[in-house]
């Protein structure tokens, strides 16, 4: 049986109290909301914080407000179950609801939060193992070792970003509000990530994610497709988020394609998305879809650090990109 290491638990009732505690406790402290990823990692000794600051008691982090015309504000403590079942989000931002509903199992979605999923620790077959297993192979760069066991000659860690909601929020152009004792700042969600498996986020150590801000949904259509070994509850080995904005005549005026679980950060296939701009969404030629899918797949460079083979994961990327775009186009034609 794996047991948690000893720690002190602090339970602030306001965001201000949480920020103050985080600043006072310093590097020995970590934030926890649902704990669905952090607690298993602590049992495996990937993390051994002396202090945990729980965010579950902060009511200000649990609300969803707004409208399709003005955009929505989603508290970082909103559970994945709430996101998946929210009527307005299902209608206006279906990709986000799909991504939230695809995470793990119903029990864990009841506990897991949008903030926790967005800042999910990067994953690797050599890292997400028990301490005994990692010790037996000499550890890896991400924890206790000095080389990346996926790419021993590389100076960096190649653990992958496996958060389902991250590529969706990037494609939707969402922003994030970060709060600390020093004040607050609002940044694009895409700016929260860096291509580094060990240090994948730009969020400062004393900052707390307070909310996600979604832009107005006018003209936007979105979809999220996920590939995983077991269709019921596994982490993604590929996530494809596509968002298209169309005018009244069905012409695509903006397009975004973001890939998840193929690198240490969500990968934006901007060149592939640009090929869709100016096209009629209900008149996309098969040849164009093939070209877009092929262009997007060139941004997918998986390594041997997740389920299934590298070649399969690479080859399936254009298939899922094509399916996602076709699903959006088919929805338009099916509504007529």
Overview of the molecule:
- The relative contact order is 0.12.
- The longest helix has 25 residues, at 310-334.
- This protein has 336 residues and is of the alpha+beta class.
- The protein has 2 domains: 1-59, Uridine Diphospho-n-acetylenolpyruvylglucosamine Reductase, domain 2 (2-Layer Sandwich), CATH 3.30.43; 62-119 and 160-334, Uridine Diphospho-n-acetylenolpyruvylglucosamine Reductase, domain 3, CATH 3.30.465.
- The model has no long low-confidence stretch (mean pLDDT 96).
- The protein is built from 12 helices and 12 strands.
Question: What does the secondary structure layout of this molecule look like, with pairings?
Answer:
Elements: E1 8-10, H1 15-25, E2 29-32, H2 38-43, E3 51-54, E4 64-67, E5 71-75, H3 80-85, H4 87-92, H5 94-101, H6 106-111, H7 114-118, H8 131-137, H9 165-171, E6 175-180, E7 183-188, E8 208-214, E9 220-227, E10 238-246, E11 252-260, E12 267-268, H10 270-274, H11 286-297, H12 310-334
Parallel strand pairs: 1-3, 2-3
Antiparallel strand pairs: 4-5, 5-8, 6-7, 6-8, 9-10, 10-11, 11-12
């Amino acid at each position: 049986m794996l047991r948690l290491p000893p720690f002190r638990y602090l339970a602030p009732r306001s965001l201000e109290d949480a920020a103050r505690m985080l600043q006072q406790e310093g590097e020995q402290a970590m934030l926890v909301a649902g704990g669905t990823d952090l607690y298993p990692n602590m049992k495996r000794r990937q993390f051994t914080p002396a202090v945990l600051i729980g965010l579950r008691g902060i009511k200000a982090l649990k609300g969803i407000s707004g409208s399709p015309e003005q955009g929505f504000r989603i508290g970082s403590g909103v559970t994945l179950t709430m996101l998946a079942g929210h009527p307005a989000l299902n209608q206006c931002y279906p990709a986000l609801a799909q991504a939230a509903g695809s995470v793990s199992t119903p029990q864990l979605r009841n506990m897991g939060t949008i903030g926790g999923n967005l800042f999910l620790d990067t994953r690797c077959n050599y890292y997400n193992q028990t301490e005994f297993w990692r010790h037996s192979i000499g550890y890896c760069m991400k924890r206790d070792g000095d080389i990346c066991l996926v790419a021993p000659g590389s100076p960096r860690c190649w653990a992958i970003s496996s958060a389902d909601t991250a590529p969706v929020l990037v494609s939707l152009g969402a922003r994030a509000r970060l709060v600390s004792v020093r004040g607050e700042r609002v940044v694009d969600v895409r700016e929260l990530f860096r291509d580094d498996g060990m240090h994948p986020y730009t969020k400062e150590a004393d900052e707390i994610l307070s909310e996600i801000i979604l832009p107005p949904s006018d003209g936007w259509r979105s979809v999220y497709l996920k590939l995983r070994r077991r269709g019921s509850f596994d982490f993604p080995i590929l996530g494809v988020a596509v968002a298209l904005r169309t005018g009244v005549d069905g012409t695509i005026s903006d397009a975004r394609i973001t890939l998840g679980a193929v690198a240490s950060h969500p990968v934006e296939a901007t060149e592939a998305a640009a090929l869709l701009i100016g096209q009629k969404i209900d008149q996309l030629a098969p040849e164009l879809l093939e070209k877009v899918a092929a262009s997007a797949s060139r941004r997918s460079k998986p390594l041997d650090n997740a389920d299934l083979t590298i070649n399969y994961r690479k080859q399936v990327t254009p298939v899922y990109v094509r399916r996602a775009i076709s699903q959006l186009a088919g929805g338009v034609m099916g509504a007529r």
